[in-house]
Amino acid sequence: MIKKAIIPAAGYGTRSLPVTKVIPKEMFPIGGKPAIHYIVEEAIQSGIEEILIVVSKWKNIIVDYFDASLELEAFLEKNNKQHLLKYTEMPDVHIQYVRQPYSRGLGDAILLGKRFVGNEPFAVLLPDDIIINSKTPALAQLVETYNTRNASVIGLNQVNPELVKKYGVIDGTSISSNVYKLNGIVEKPQSNPPSNLAVIGRYLFDPAIFSFLEQVTPDQSNEIQLTEAISKMLGENECYGELIDGDRFDIGSDDEYTELVKKFSHPKGKK
């Protein structure tokens, strides 16, 4: 069973500047709740019992959000506004935090969770990606495949060929209508992509991934790339990709964030 998850939330949010100078993109409002709230809810619905959120020193607002609001609760009680107390309730899950001292990429953020994970399989959920309108929560879809294959699984989405260069892209062998065995993976291919199957922000890893992350040499931006660690892992361990059912929105994209907010303004958008 997958009981632990890491949510990396320490990035600068450069795609959404200047607002992310003061409001982390993880706290962008969607239907009255911040984006990261939906990610935590998805984790819980997928069987996760412990979450590690990786933050940076300027993102204490995330820690504050999931903390108890005793003063607010007392104010609502005193002013006969008990009907609003439901908005102070937080998801029922154990949450821990760790700071990423330097912005060294997604791979480094995941490495910070090595002690938290121990020797257990674990999930990684990126709060940029909100997935709605799926019959089964996105992460839970991967859990089913992990339990069947007993190997790491990453979430996939078919994208238009002209957008492939923005994503990690897999070379895979189809083993069912929506599951692929990975033969290779390339980060943001600028030409000759191996497929149009792009990696999105849901992963289930065997703890062996940490040894491969530790082997990765930082790139020109001094970042440790998760894609390179996955590529190294493929030489020794099987890994699968699964097309995730549901509508995926990247909240770092102004257009997609706006579209998502509009969907949540209509009751049918909330699933």
What does this structure look like?
This protein is an alpha/beta fold and 271 residues long. The protein has a single domain, classed as Spore Coat Polysaccharide Biosynthesis Protein SpsA, Chain A. It has helices at 35-45, 60-66, 70-78, 105-111, 114-117, 138-149, 209-213, 226-233, 254-264, and strands at 4-8, 29-30, 33-34, 50-55, 94-99, 122-125, 129-132, 152-158, 168-174, 179-187, 197-205, 239-243, 247-250. Strand 2 (29-30) and strand 3 (33-34) form a beta hairpin. The longest helix is centred in the middle third of the chain and has 12 residues, at 138-149. The radius of gyration is 19 Å and the shape is globular. The mean pLDDT is 90.
Key descriptive features of the protein:
271 residues, alpha/beta, Spore Coat Polysaccharide Biosynthesis Protein SpsA, Chain A, 9-stranded mixed sheet, two-stranded antiparallel ribbon, 27% helix, 26% strand, globular
Record the SSE blueprint:
Layout lengths: L3 E5 L20 E2 L2 E2 H11 L4 E6 L4 H7 L3 H9 L15 E6 L5 H7 L2 H4 L4 E4 L3 E4 L5 H12 L2 E7 L9 E7 L4 E9 L9 E9 L3 H5 L12 H8 L5 E5 L3 E4 L3 H11 L7
